[in-house]
Amino acid sequence: MDNRRLILLVIFSMSLVMLWDAWLKHNQPKPVAGPSVTQSATPTPTAAGQVAAPAAAPLAATSAERAKAPKLTVETDTVRAQISALGGDLVRLELLKHGANNDHTKPFVLFEEAGAHSYIAQSGLIGAGLPNHKTVFALPAADKLVLKDGEQALSVRLEAPEQNGVKVSKILTFHRGSHVIDVAYEIANGSSAALAGYSYYQLTRDTKAAENTAGFFGGAQTYTGPAFYTDADKYKKVDFKTISKGEAKLPKSAPDGWVAMVQHYFVSAYAPKQGQREFFARPLDGEMVAAGLIQPLPQIAAGQKVTVSVPLYAGPQEQRELSDLAPGLDLVVDYGWLTVIAAPIFWGLSWLHKLVGNWGWAIILLTVLIKLAFFPLSAASYKSMAKMKTVMPRMKRIQEQYKDDRMKMNQEMMELYKKEKVNPMGGCWPMLIQMPVFIALYWVLLGAVEMRQAPWLGWITDLSIKDPYFILPIIMGATSLIQMKLSPSSPDPVQQKVMMFMPIFFTLMMAWFPSGLVLYWVVNNMLSIGQQWYITRMFDSGAKPANS
User: Fold this and answer.
1) Who contacts 154 (Cβ-Cβ below 8 Å, separation ≥6)?
2) How far apart are CA 114 and CA 35, in angstroms?
C-alpha cells in the first residue's frame, strides 16, 4: 500500500516534468519568415461547391504599390483602424483597451501590413467589372475619422471606379463599444443587363505563431491558424501546415457558419448572418495563407440597387461578445480537454468578478468555494492521515521485526491497517481530487483573455503571467512544507526523501506558472493547513494511545 503512494507521487512528479518540457517547446524561438506583401488571387467558386484559384490570377501588388496606396485612419472608443485604398482592406487594427505584450501602455496590434506579422482583412466581389481586393477605391477626403461623443456608429464609404454602368461602394461601419465591423457592398446596376456574381471575405496572414505573453508558462502550445464552423461539421481547426500541403479538409457548402483566424487571446472572423456560403483556405506566396468564404450575390436587374453585408469581428476572445455574434464562435476560446470543468470555472470566476471587481479576489473566493465543496472528502482524508500518525510506531516495529521477510512484513502491515481501520492512501486523495480543477483553472488562465494583464494587488499586475518577484511561489513552497510536517511521515526512507524533495520541486515549478494559478494553490494550501491542523488536533485529543 505504501508503494502505491510512492507511485502516485512519482506519476505526479512526472506530470510536472512533462509540463516543464512542454514549456520549453512552447517558448523556443519560432522560425522567422520574411515579411510578405504578396496578395492572393481572387478566389472563384466552382460548380462542385469548392473554391479554386482562377486559371489566370491577377498580378499581385508590389510592396511599392502597397506603400503608395492612400490610407485612412478610423478611431472609435475600442479600435484604431487603418483602411487602404487598395481593395479597401483593413491593413492595421489597434485594440485600444488591450495593451501590447511587452508594453501595456501601447495598444495591442492585431492587423498589420508590415511588422511583426503580415495579417490583414480583405474582401471583394467576383464578376465582370466588379471590384476585388486589388481595385483602388476612392477614400473620403479626410485623413482621419473619429467616432464623436454621442454617436453609436461611424460609417466609411469607399467608391470603386464605375465599370460598364455599374457603381459599387464599399462601406465599413464601426460601432461604439464593439469589435464588430460591418463590411457592406452597395451595388447599383446602371447597365442594360442583369448582373450576377459573388462576394468573398478572406483573412490573410503569415504562418508565424503569435508571440507568447512575456514570462508566461505554457503547458501546451496555443493554436494559431484558421478555424471554420458550420452546424453540420461543427468547430474545425485547419492548421497552416495542412493548408500549405494542399490537404485542408474544409466544411461543405452550408447555409450557416463562419471562418476565423485564431491566435492566443485574439481572433478575427467573418460571420454572415444568412445565405449559402462556400469555404476556402489556400497557401499564398511568401509563406502566407488565406482563409475565407464566398457567397452568391442576389440577381441584380438593370436599374436595381442591392446591398450585401457581412459582420467582421476583430478583437479579443471575449466569450459573451463572440457568442452573441454567431453560434459556436465562442469555441475559439480553447480550454483543452478539460473544457467540461474549465467552462463552469470561468463562469464562476466571472460571476465572482462581478461581485468584487477584481480577478485576483475572485480566484481567492473561488478557491474557498471549491474547498467547501470538497470539505467532507478532505476531512475524511485528514482523519485517515491522523490515524496513520497514531499507528506509525507500530509500523516501524513491524518493519524492523520482519526486515528480512518482505512477504511477512506486508502481511503484518495489512493486518494492522485492517485492525486499526486506516488507509495509507487516504492522504493522497485531496491532492488527486484537486488535480482536474488545478489543470482546468490553468487552461482558463491560459485561454481567457479576461485574465490577460488583469492585476490583483501590489506587485501582481498580470494574473496570466508568472510572479515577477517569485513571492507567491515561495509562499506556496512554505505552505507545502508545513502541510508535509502535519502529515504522517512514511517509514520507508525512500518515500521520506521523495516527500522532503516535493516542496522544493513544487516551488521551482510554480515559479513559472501564471501567478493566478499560484494564488489559487497558496490559498488552497492555507485552507488545507487550517483544516488539517484542526482535525488532527481534534483526533489526537480524543484518540487513545495505540497498544504495543
Assistant:
1) 74, 76, 145, 146, 147, 173, 174
2) 7
Q: How far apart are CA 225 and CA 213, in angstroms?
A: 17
The answer to whether 254 and 232 have CB atoms below 8 angstroms apart is yes
147 vs 464, residue with greater confidence: 147
Q: How many CB atoms lie within 10 A of CB 415?
A: 11
Query: Mean pLDDT across the chain, nearest whole number?
Result: 82
Range in 183-197, 402-416, 471-485, 511-525 the model is least confident about: 402-416
Name which residue leads in pLDDT, 258 or 53: 258
SS3 state at 546: coil
Contacts 24+ apart (CB under 8 A), 160-168: 160/131, 160/135, 161/131, 161/135, 161/136, 162/190, 163/129, 163/130, 163/131, 164/128, 164/129, 164/191, 165/189, 165/190, 165/191, 165/192, 166/129, 166/130, 166/190, 166/191, 166/195, 168/125, 168/130, 168/131
Choose from 107-111, 370-374, 409-413, 418-422 the range with maximum mean pLDDT. Answer: 107-111
Q: How far is it, in rounded angstroms, from Cα 519 to Cα 52?
A: 52
Question: Which pLDDT tens digit goes with each residue over 186-201?
Answer: 999 999 999 999 999 9
Residue 376 clears pLDDT 90, i.e. is over it: no
Grid coordinates in use for 547?
Answer: 497498544
Cell matching residue 448: 481567457
CB count within 10 Å of CB 500 equals 12
Cell for 128? 465582370
Tell which wins on pLDDT, 491 or 153: 153
Query: Which residues pair with residue 144 across a beta bridge?
Result: 73
User: What single-letter DSSP state applies at residue 122?
Assistant: E
Q: Identify the DSSP state of 448.
A: -
Which helix (H) or strand (E) covers residue 531, if one does?
helix 515-542
- What is the C-alpha radius of gyration for the chain, rounded to an integer number of angstroms? 30
The number of helices, as runs of H, and strands, as runs of E, in the chain is 12, 19
